[in-house]
Design a protein that fits this description.
Layout: E1 2-6, E2 15-18, E3 28-33, E4 36-44, E5 59-60, H1 69-81, H2 86-93, E6 110-111, E7 132-137, H3 142-155, E8 159-163, E9 182-185, H4 191-202, E10 208-211, E11 223-229, H5 246-256, E12 260-264, H6 270-277, E13 282-286, E14 295-299, E15 305-306, E16 309-310, H7 311-322, E17 327-330, E18 339-342, E19 359-361, E20 364-367, E21 372-374, E22 388-391, H8 395-405, E23 411-413, H9 420-432, E24 437-440, E25 455-458, H10 472-489, E26 495-500, H11 504-510, H12 516-527, E27 535-542, H13 546-557, E28 563-564, H14 577-581, E29 584-589, E30 592-601, E31 616-621
Parallel strand pairs: 7-12, 7-13, 8-10, 8-11, 9-10, 11-12, 14-26, 17-24, 17-25, 23-24, 25-26
Antiparallel strand pairs: 1-2, 1-4, 3-4, 3-5, 6-9, 15-16, 18-22, 19-20, 20-21, 27-30, 27-31, 28-30, 29-30
Helix pairs in contact: 1-2, 1-5, 10-11
């Protein structure tokens, strides 16, 4: 028998092989290619070919297909949508090294039916999710809504994928799966364990798989529902090539299987609002009832501010404390100082692993991303002068300032190096009243009880507006909405106080129930060709003929693109929004020049990369 095989390589072609095995489409096989043995994917069987002297399949990996017909079709969509080869798409869907002899899945990874009792939430009764839906609003009642719909889908004989941004989030929803056969899944599992879970899902031994981004590819054969918690979370976007969106994959699979897609988020993004407006999605808004939050927006552009605290905010903190209340202050500024710099040459100390700016934490420098500490250098690594100093104030420095202002009250801050247990103790002490003023990071949502007469203050509401990101206003709007909805969901009665220098009007729209913000954003994006009215694609061109390829790209793609950056160099230090939008700049890459072009095309336009001999062209879309 002759079969077609896709290799997990960035090559567009599929290859014909003879096989002595009884192989079905969707199985993986080992084939010889370019002098190597490569685990590959069978996409078609009983192929007629004119090629003489075909090579033979060396080994069959799967006895039965782990790639369903629908997943094979998904790989074709990913090939076109994410500018990759079908083999690379299949590699994402089912990595070739995920294999082994199926074995008993350990307790805790798989949970048998009837082990856990379902949660009770009468307020959610009667909400039936259908088609493509976004659930917004009071997510404290989300579990009840999900439980009812999960029960309906499973009892109909169909299966469910439940996606969470991070693997430890699964525990929050374990009660929702009670009574059903469910398993957890994530890419941190061993290869053999991942294979066992996928095989059990394919064979119908599991009703629900709960996991992170990669769980979206679970090979269920009777898929009835995909639930996605916080679909706006960046963890759902694959950083490596192919640069795919788990939300797009989930919607594609739901439509192909006539299944339900339900994304649960505090508020809609602009793209999600646009989809609801066009009737492509439903919006299910869970009510907060009578829970409202008193909000005060303070524009501090002309107000004296010390360590990020305005005079009015100091008065608000004092009022809350005198009433027997407490204050939780939210700030993104980690550590004691936000950076360690040379005052002579301006050098900023960065992490040796991820190149992110290091913060000053306690007696060391610290990278919050890599969780790695570094000693403070006495001399500048660039100019050699002894001019190193702290720059910017972090939460620890602000806490020190507030201790001087309120010496008879307990003031603490959440540190960048604090563990989950450290943070939990701080939040528990705050909830019990042992801590009067707490400066917190985004983990503040762990506080579920606010003391009476509480104050929640956002110190720097516009910190996202300084970086030239075209989504900055939307991101600011969404995280402020998240804070407001959080306070309403815990029925705290706390006053929300927002400090801003640049965005008083934006903050006002955030706390309005009208759709004014969304409509203004859509008008601006349509005018300047931004998503959802255009696709923004970054092209990276390298190779000996990269310069010629740039000219070919400009000529060929200018026919369909609504914008394409001209072939002219822009200095790397130029960071204005215009420079970000119109550029073709060489980047250092192993001593060779790599050119980058940004283009915009209409969503409905067909886009394909030109082939130029001696040049490598790679495309990634902003998702």
């Amino acid at each position: 028998m002759i079969i077609k095989v896709c290799l997990p390589l960035p090559v567009k072609n599929e290859f014909d092989y003879e096989t002595p095995f009884d192989v079905n489409a969707g199985c993986r096989v080992v084939v010889p290619f370019a002098g190597k043995k490569i685990a590959s994917y069978c996409t078609q069987t009983r192929v007629k070919t004119l090629s003489p002297n075909l090579k033979s399949v060396l080994k069959q990996i799967d006895s039965s297909p782990l790639l369903t017909e629908e997943l094979l079709e998904l790989s074709l969509m990913m090939e076109e949508r994410y500018f990759t080869s079908r083999g690379m798409a299949l590699k994402m869907i089912l990595p070739p090294d995920v294999k082994g002899v199926p074995r008993r899945i350990p307790e805790g990874v798989i949970n048998p039916a009837g082990k856990e009792s379902p949660p009770e939430n009468a307020s959610s009764a009667g909400i039936k999710l259908t088609g493509l839906s976004y659930i917004t609003g009071n997510l404290s009642s989300l579990n009840g809504v999900l439980r009812e719909n999960i029960s309906r889908i499973v009892k109909s004989g169909r299966q469910i994928i439940f996606l969470v941004p991070q693997r430890f989030d699964i525990k929050k929803y374990a009660g929702v799966f009670g009574g059903f056969r469910w398993a957890s899944f994530n890419s941190q599992f061993s290869l053999a364990l991942r294979h066992s879970v996928l095989k059990a899902a394919s064979d119908g031994e599991i009703d629900i798989v709960a996991g992170t981004r990669s769980a979206v590819f679970t090979p269920f054969r009777k898929l009835g529902m995909i639930i996605m918690i916080n679909p706006q979370n960046k963890n759902y976007t694959e950083e490596q090539h192919p640069h795919y969106s788990a939300e797009e994959i989930a919607v594609f699979r739901a439509e192909k299987n006539n299944a339900v897609f339900a994304g649960a988020e505090d508020s809609l993004s602009v793209n999600q609002y646009f989809n609801v407006k066009r009737g492509l999605f439903n919006q299910v808004a869970l009510s907060f009832g009578s829970n409202e939050t008193k909000t005060r927006i303070n524009a501090i552009s002309d107000t004296p501010v010390e360590f990020g605290i305005s005079g009015e905010l100091l008065k608000k903190i004092k009022e809350a404390l005198l009433k027997g209340g407490s204050a939780l202050l939210y700030s993104t500024r980690s550590g004691w100082a936000t950076s360690f710099v040379c005052s002579a040459c301006g050098y900023i100390v960065t992490c040796g692993i991820c190149s992110k700016k290091l913060i000053v934490s306690k007696f060391n420098l610290f990278c919050p991303k890599c969780r790695k500490s570094y000693p403070k250098p006495d001399f500048c690594p660039r100019c050699g002068r002894k001019k190193m100093k702290n720059k910017g104030f972090g939460r620890a420095m602000i806490a020190s300032y507030l201790r001087n202002k309120f010496p008879h009250y307990s003031v603490y801050s959440v540190g960048a190096e604090d563990s989950g247990e450290d943070k939990k103790k701080l939040f528990d002490d705050f909830a019990s009243g042992k801590i009067n003023i707490l400066l917190a990071d985004a983990s503040f949502a762990s506080v579920r009880v606010f003391p009476k007469y509480g104050l929640f203050a956002v110190l720097d509401a516009d910190f996202l507006l300084y970086g030239g990101d075209w989504r900055a206003e939307e991101k600011t709007f969404l995280w402020l909405r998240k804070i407001r909805n959080f306070l309403r969901s815990v029925s705290s009665g706390a006053e929300l106080y927002v400090q801003t220098k640049l965005a008083a009007d934006l903050c006002s729209k955030t706390f309005s129930e009208s759709g004014e913000f969304y409509e203004e954003q859509l008008k601006e994006r349509e005018k300047f060709n931004f998503p959802p009215f255009a696709r923004i694609i970054h092209l990276e061109i390298s190779g000996k003929n990269a310069s010629d390829a740039c000219g070919i790209i400009e000529r060929e793609l200018s026919k369909t693109a609504v914008f394409i950056s001209p072939p002219s160099e822009v200095p790397a230090e130029k960071t204005s929004s215009e420079a970000e939008d119109v550029r073709l700049r060489p980047k250092a890459s192993g001593g060779k020049k790599v050119y980058e072009i940004i283009l915009k095309i209409k969503p409905e336009d067909i886009f394909s990369l030109p082939q130029v001999k001696g040049a490598r062209i790679r495309a990634e879309e902003e998702i």
